[in-house]
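::Encoded backbone::
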Amino acid sequence: MYILVTVYIIAVNFYAVMLIKSQRDEDGDDENKKHSGDGKIILTALLGGALGIYCSMFAMKYRLKNLMLMILMPVIAVLNIYFFYIAFKSGFTFFIVGSA
């Protein structure tokens, strides 16, 4: 189970980096264009990719002026790390609802 969750975390963060890269390439140099795709970014962050999104935003210098993303991504990243820490520490026993 530990390996599966570790692979999941890596895969979601890889997808997050590729999502930011594809949006940056799609937008090009047009700074005045209204950004679309915030829903995809927030959903990916909630699924565990907030740290990948936040780091790739700085690495690619993309959407740094968007106040919502600059505040929301670190908060979600802290929550992601906390939940994954609790999951690993508890041995994923929260998945067991009840015994027969």
Notes: The chain has one domain: 2-23+37-91. DSSP finds three helices and no strands in the chain. Residues 2-23+37-91 form one domain. Helices lie at 2-27, 38-59, 67-90.
